[in-house]
Amino acid sequence: MTVFKTSMRNFVAHKGRMVLSAVAVLLSVAFVCGTLVFTDTMTATFDKLFASTASDVSVSAKKVDDAQETGKPETVPASLLAKLQQTAGVQQVETQVVSDKITVVNSKNENVGSKTGAPTIAINWDERDSKKSVELTSGHAPRGPTESLIDADTAAKKDLKIGDSLRVIATPGDFSTRIVGIATFKTTNPGAALIYLDTPTAQSKLLGTTDAYTNFGLTAKSGVSDAQLKKDVTAAVGTDYKIQTAAEANAEAKDDIGSFLNPMKYVMLGFAFISVIVGIFLIINTFSMLVAQRTREIGLMRAIGSSRKQINRSVLFEALMLGVLGSVLGIGGGIGLAILLMKLMGKLGMHLDTSELTIKATTPVIGLAIGVIVTVVAAMLPARRAGKISPMAAMRDAGTPADGKAGKVRATIGVLVALAGGAALVAAGKADKASQGSSFLGFGVLLTLIGFVIVGPLLAGVLVRALSTVSLRFFGPVGRLAERNALRNPRRTGATASALMIGLALVAGLSVVGTSMVASATDQLDKSVGADFILQTDNQQPLSPSLAKAIHSAGHLEHVTDYTGTNAKLTTPDGKVSTKQLTAASPTYARDLRVEAVQGKLSDAYGDNSMSVNEGFATDHGIKIGSELTVAFVGGETAKLKVAAITSDDTTFDKGAMYTNIATAKRFLPADKFPPNQIMFAKAVDGQAKEAAASLKEAVKDYPQLTVRDQTDYKDLIKSQVNQLLYMIYGLLGLAIVVAILGVVNTLALSVVERTREIGLMRAIGMSRRQLRRMVRLESVVIALFGALVGLGLGMGWGISAQRLMATVGFGVLEIPWGTIIIVFFGSALVGLVAALVPAFRAGRMNVLNAIASD
Amino acid sequence: MTTAVTIPKSGGSGERSAVAARARQVTKSYGTTEDTRVVALDAVDVDIARSGFTAIMGPSGSGKSTLMHCLAGLDSVTSGQIWVGDTEITKLKDKKLTQLRRDQIGFIFQAFNLLPTLNALENITLPMDIAGRKPDREWLDRVIETVGLAGRLKHRPNQLSGGQQQRVAVARALAARPEIIFGDEPTGNLDSRAGAEVLGFLRRSVDELGQTIVIVTHDPVAASYADRVIYLADGRIVDDMANPTADSVLERMKSFDARGRVS
Fold it and tell me: Which Gene3D superfamilies does this entry report, sorted A to Z (chain B) (predicted)?
């Protein structure tokens, strides 16, 4: 019991020294709990939304995997309505028309939909429908072909009022409409922009026919269960339709949400994991230093009869208290983080209600378990060291603890692990198959990381000296003292720098990969893209026929290329049937994208009843130039197409594509099944690029969802897409770096306490406060630079290995972002300066007399 | 007797005075209210002779360390004035005080005199390094010669014995040619032989190099190396003895002890 009492007293006495470690535990736990609370809340919110909007039983078209993407929703025939109404157990049938393949623009031709990827949805307004997610809050319901409602959030965001006119761009054709009412969400707005039309308008304008609906919503008579109703309906209409109960629909929707939320969840948990790892270093350091500072005291305890085990346990008990404290605060912090994330989602248009915050019982349990286990495990090594302190330590001069030297065993193990990791990285770089290589890469990253952490103290000896030679020596004796201080306990310096190293290694690795991806894509673009203009929508919608027509009407163009994908079943000479998407494009596409043909000529693939296949497919199925493939267009006729070219697989764009002339495809696929253009290309008449660009922009000015990009713009687009991803990852890694800074602060603060006497001595013999502060700062800077140097070097190794691996899938250009690397390196010096602010200030304020008074 | 002013300050301008440090009516007290007030130094007057070896003695709590700390500019005084050389130091700000310590004062503490990360030579030249001055090579060699450390200059403190460490500390104090060297029980942690060695070096540096030295000690033997012993009790100077021997110091201490017991 006395052991625990001393632990408790020690903990309280040194609470100041524990603060930073507690913050590290707090951050890790907060990240884990925040992620859990946030995703649980999202899931709960959506459950509620689905539960309130699902019909008892719904009847919709069966989803066909290889259906042509016609830009119109799948439908069920209107003739089913009568049958359903007569089915026993049916109380009421609601007819629904829903399409998310539209773009809505205001009178100034601005897109009113979400720009963050949430859909714009047009729905028929059915007064009888009790399961609507919105209610009419002003104006009146839409009546007739020119009236519509929009949701209140969109109205507010885009400043739309009753009476404003809108234009809807849909595949069957554009149409104008006037806002006659505003509808408000009854539950959470998931971020979508909604527009309501009356039923006949919705049918004719969205589906192109008044003879169909997208689905029927059935309400059961009282006493009839959903399952019974489903059975009755299935009996009445047959199995050609997708018939779902409310529960089944909810489960499906939940799966969809899950697949949307899960990646986010795993990414966030991944970063929580990183902050846990970084936190471990911090905790190890704190406890090592506490034990070192208490050497004499522990020696005394041993001398008067404490067992090793008791000493060991007392240190672990302190760690336990720290873990519990940090975790409890972390759980609170996690809930705060979740609320913050929800507010952030609100900014992106998804209004989550914080009153629906869902905290499952497992969340605090997981948080506490992680925090406590991590802290106690991290403290084990220092605790063992404490147990080993001999009773003689009580008699010896405490002074500053003996200089820790890295052992030979440790060095050997570290070097071996790092070498094994390096070998795995090299193997990953040389792998032919991406799948095999990526497991090598994973191993390599992990092993090199562990190896470098182990050899950290040794590296510290070498690199700190080298770094000091080029930087600290300019600061004279103060610089030399800082260097010696950083070197005096390489283990501590190594552990402190490790925390920073991990974060920066990830940053460096990812930025090498990102930059290389952009460089590869740009390089490919230069090499293979011949088109001057690339015409694409921003909301992933196909180019509606009206839009395509507008593009074709632009002047100063040498040619305009249509491009779409048609699904077809291919029967190859080896008798196998594969479902593929056949790229149907204008013959000019062969000049827009110069894919290398390994056999034949690509332009021949656009000949009458001809096509091309890619090299891999040709090899797998024994296809040669002149082979005839049986191509059954889904929803159309079956054609025999002759293979006129085999294309190389060594390409970034259109990898694995099979080409045919769009005219050929049109012959076998009826117009109402023919998919609209996914993308279009254009080439200007020589020397008229400027005029062509202006003409194109003028031609598509009614279609704000389309951006006209020349090659430079397109490169910028690729760059910005990769950068967006990188910035997000950098942002999250920032957390790991914050924890690392805490680690540096922690080490310095404890070192300053530990060196009280030395500091007093230096002050006594004439070192000024400024010099003293500078000394602490320089020590911090050199530790940070050391961490940065190793981390960036390691990260570049990872990045290069990953890039070599990606070369097998077409990203062949390695580009190291030296600018970023150098900025990060010098930025870490700044990190060191910031971390040293408080410890340096405290060192300067230290009372000289207290420091030198002999006890 | 609260004064130990025995040497008249020589009058002429520009002339080096015979006094290295002076204290006039120096009072140091702790605590704010009357009840908690503790007077460590009570209106002390003292002159420290240039090129002399002075020992300050007294029982624990007599204020001897406080007096030394105040004279050395490490501690502030409650009232009174102190001069080191011609500089009045009681009003100086930290920056000036630091400079004063760096340039005009040398220190030898009981223990923890050396920075563990620096070798013996680096420790010796540290004050000059900090000041950004080049050490006077000839003088440095002579000092090192005097303290007998020539073969150990590249050693780190933990590779040196306690006596050697103290000798390095003496060398450091001497190397910068300070106005005064203060020693706070400089031999307190050493055995008698090592202590005698260090004290011998201090004595020689006074005799041969003309250094001014003030030490605080409660060891009569250490005090016997000095030219003069000042006794403190309850923050006041109670006696001042010239050319002490270990026996005479011990005698005097005994008499104070006896007096202390009756009073």
Answer: P-loop containing nucleotide triphosphate hydrolases (3.40.50.300)
Write the secondary structure of A420-481 as one string of H (helix), E (strand) and C (coil). HHHHHHHHHHHCCCHHHHHHHHHHHHHHHHHHHHHHHHHHHHHHHHHHHHHCHHHHHHHHHH
d(CA A299, CA A13): 19
| Beta strands per DSSP E along chain B | 3-4, 19-30, 38-49, 53-57, 79-84, 87-88, 105-108, 180-184, 213-216, 228-233, 236-242
Contact (Cβ atoms closer than 8 angstroms) between residue A141 and residue A198: yes
Give the strand order in the sheet containing A90-96: A90-96, A215-220, A57-61, A241-245
Beta strands in A290-401 (DSSP E): none
Nearest to B102 among A765, A848, A852 (CB): A765
Burial-class residue A184 by CB neighbours within 10 Å (0-12, 13-18, 19+): middle
Could you tell me the two tokens for A743?
């680690």
Mean pLDDT: which of A640-649, B3-12, B113-122 is highest?
A640-649
Length of chain A: 855
**Cα A467-A471-A472 angle, rounded to 5 deg:** 95
Q: Where are any strands of DSSP class E within A464-549?
A: 533-537
In chain B, the number of structural domains is: 1
Other Cβ atoms within 10 Å of A398 Cβ, number: 17
DSSP string, A273-321: HHHHHHHHHHHHHHHHHHHHHTHHHHHHHHHTT--HHHHHHHHHHHHHH
- pLDDT cut 90: percent of chain A above it: 12
H or E, element range at A597 = strand A597-600
β-partners of residue A533 are A682, A710
Main-chain phi, psi angles of B83, to 5 degrees? -115, 135
What does the mean pLDDT of chain A come to?
Answer: 84
Q: Which of A765, A768, A854 to mutate to test the interface with B (most CBs of B within 10 A)?
A: A765
Instruction: Point out the residue among B98, B101, B129 whose CB comes nearest to the CB of A477.
Output: B129
Tokens standing for residue A381? 């090594």
Q: What's the whole-number mean pLDDT along residues A278-289? A: 82
Residue B96 lies in a domain: yes
Q: Which of A400, A767, A852 is the closest to B130 by Cβ?
A: A767
Full DSSP string of A197-214:
E-HHHHIIIIIS-SSEES
List all residues 6 or more positions away from A617 whose beta carbon is below 8 Å from its beta carbon.
Answer: A578, A623, A656, A658
pLDDT in tens, A743-802: 888 888 888 877 888 888 888 888 888 888 999 999 999 999 999 999 999 999 999 999
Six token digits for residue A245? 């109960």
User: Is A769 within 8 Å of B107 when comparing Cβ atoms?
Assistant: no
Collapse the DSSP code of A377 into the 3-class scheme (helix H, G, I; strand E, B; otherwise coil) and give the result: helix
Asked if pLDDT for residue A491 goes beyond 90, the answer is no
Smallest CA–CA distance from B99 into chain A, residue:
A766
Tokens representing residue A35 in the block: 């992620």
- The neighbour count for residue A140, using CB atoms within 10 Å, is 11
State residue B7's pLDDT score: 53
C-alpha distance from residue A445 to each of A463, A505, A582, A635, A801 (Å): 22, 10, 39, 49, 9
B116/A757 touch (CB, cutoff 8 Å), yes or no: no
Measure the CA–CA gap between A313 and A380, rounded to whole angstroms: 9
Which residue is listed with tokens 């047959």?
A: A238
pLDDT of residue A68: 76
CATH number at residue B31: 3.40.50.300
Residue B156's domain comprises 3-7+17-262
Residue B98 domain-assigned (yes or no): yes
CA distance A321 to A751: 23
Does B12 fall in a domain?
Answer: no
Other residues' Cβ atoms within 10 Å of the Cβ of residue B99: 15
Determine, yes or no, domain membership for B170: yes
Q: Are A515 and A507 in contact (CB under 8 A)?
A: no
Is residue B221 scored above 60 in pLDDT? yes
